[in-house]
Amino acid sequence: MTKFSDLALDPRVLQAVTEAGYETPTPIQAEAIPHALQGRDVLGIAQTGTGKTASFTLPMITLLGQGRARARMPRSLVLAPTRELAAQVAENFDIYAKHTKLTKALLIGGVAFGEQDKLIDRGVDVLIATPGRLLDHFERGKLLLTGVQIMVVDEADRMLDMGFIPDIERIFQLTPFTRQTMFYSATMAPEIERITNTFLNNPARIEVARQATASLTITQSLIEVKPVRKDRSFADKRAVLRALIKAEGEACTNAIIFCNRKMDVDVVAKSLKSHGFNAAPIHGDLDQSVRTKTLDGFRDGSLHLLVASDVAARGLDIPAVSHVFNFDVPSHPEDYVHRIGRTGRAGRLGKAYTISVPSDEKYLKAIESLIKSEIPRGALPEGYVPDSGEGRPDRADRPREDRGAKSRERGKGRDRPVKPHDEVASMEPVVAAPVAEVREEPAREERREERRDERSTERRNEGRGERRDRGESRERREERPAERATERPNDRTNDRSNERSGDRREQRDDRRDYRRDRDLGPAVIGMGEHVPDFILRSFAIKPSKTDDADEAATGTEG
Ligand code: AMP
């Protein structure tokens, strides 16, 4: 078996690896590191959890050991699709490079440009960035990519999902042709294949077996809920979730609760909190500082339950999770393996509960065919009282705005998830994270920079085909990875599309209620293409004698 000491790594890197407690290289490390150290391009087909970050960071630090950073010209570049992933790579870099003098900068959105500019000006060896923020720095003329000797693209398949491929191509073109490229993707979609054929030079292709089976240390259980009324399934599932967590008692040291939709992430977290659980949400619509604090709280144990969307949690390295609860059955079977793989890591025992309703049947079938086994059916937890189907769900379970607005009291009493428009309509923060309740108000300069940042990104996006239809900026997409998870193309065609059109209807109702409650009158609808002639007609007013007299009296000119 290969040992780290066989890999010709810099002794300072080896020391850091030993201190990190790693005994042997993972398969991707054993295979990729020798090629990378020879300066060869690497194409790694591997998922998170395989040790892929160290497979590019360790040789990178070794290769950059010699040489010095120059102002505004980073010597290497790592691109990651989300802020969290970029931050995670930066943390890894700090661990492995701690005995060297190499410098790094992390360029991610949601952080003021000023500090990042200062670091770049000083010169950095390693630049770790999300594509949007990197291009923004470049376009501000603050950064030159012509000194990049090593470029890493991490999680390319997610870059593709998030519409970043045109940005990646552009960044490739801004770096020297002679650079060494290390490119990682969990899957090889045709578009990814095309990019690698274009920008990689005879790469060493290393494939680490795709994880299609769940670890044997994870006890899986499927809890089938049969709501009396379909429109009460959301409340019923929340009641089951609470009962499951309570039934697990102290064995549940911490847990991740996965929801398919980010709006449900908010509602479930809020509902748990109102029932006295220590829970907080994480998804892409939350402010970066909130996300970071929530994750830190979960890592240090001060937060017990993390309610997450797939994308927000994906790729995040959170060790030692005792339980995973799938509040929803994932509509993509690989997500199931991914989610439950958050527990039972490194030989530890873990439990994964999945709550299902009858309409999940086809998703369950897909999961069971992927994992090639049936998820054992578990009993409904003690303490769970099925919803009778009469009346409304209890007050604490309802979203706040649903509780307050009189207009809705008159409505049908639906138990519906919070939507982004609710946040606008209620003018109250929907999210209340215990660890991260204080939303840091960015400094004025920072806000101005963020606005400029958004504007410049949006300008660049104009005219581009991919995902531009929504006029959404790249920076914004980086901020909202969770939304992407719920908007994959095949989702649109599944049964849940009906649910979405219902959502849109509710959003319209919410807006109407909001205006009515505040006597704002009907919303003004734009004129569209039609502009009446008289508005476009130019006209000049001939000054009257009285006007002349007024001007003379006040002393105004021209
Ligand atoms: P990654 O796939 O890069 O996200 O890594 C997943 C986890 O594996 C991280 O927590 C790393 O610290 C850990 N790890 C990476 N390489 C090794 C190794 N050789 N031995 C043990 N753990 C490792």
What attributes characterize this protein structure?
alpha/beta; 14 strands; disordered C terminus; Rossmann fold; binds adenosine monophosphate; single chain; seven-stranded parallel beta sheet; 558 residues; globular; 11% strand
Any chance you could write out the topology, listing elements then pairs?
Elements: H1 11-19, H2 27-37, E1 42-45, H3 52-64, E2 76-79, H4 83-96, E3 104-107, H5 113-122, E4 126-129, H6 131-139, E5 150-153, H7 156-161, H8 165-174, E6 180-185, H9 190-199, E7 204-207, E8 218-224, H10 233-248, E9 255-259, H11 262-274, E10 279-282, H12 288-300, E11 305-309, H13 310-313, E12 323-326, H14 333-340, E13 350-356, H15 361-371, E14 377-378, H16 400-404, H17 406-409, H18 420-426, H19 444-461, H20 474-479, H21 481-485, H22 489-492, H23 496-517, H24 533-536, H25 545-554
Parallel strand pairs: 1-6, 1-7, 2-4, 2-5, 3-4, 5-6, 8-13, 8-14, 9-11, 9-12, 10-11, 12-13
Helix pairs in contact: 2-3, 3-4, 14-15, 18-23
The structure holds adenosine monophosphate.
Adenosine monophosphate (AMP) binds at residues 22, 25-26, 29, 48-54, 317.
Can you tell me about this structure?
This protein has 558 residues and is an alpha/beta fold. Among the domains are: 204 residues, P-loop containing nucleotide triphosphate hydrolases (Rossmann fold, 3-Layer(aba) Sandwich); 179 residues, Rossmann fold. Helices cover 43% and strands 11% of the residues. It is built from 25 helices and 14 strands. The strands form two sheets. It has a seven-stranded parallel sheet with strand order 3-4-2-5-6-1-7, sandwiched between helices. A seven-stranded parallel sheet has the order 10-11-9-12-13-8-14, with helices on both faces. The chain is globular. The protein starts with 10 loop residues before the first helix and ends with a helix. The C terminus is likely disordered. Bound molecules: adenosine monophosphate. The site of adenosine monophosphate (AMP) has 12 residues, from helix 3.
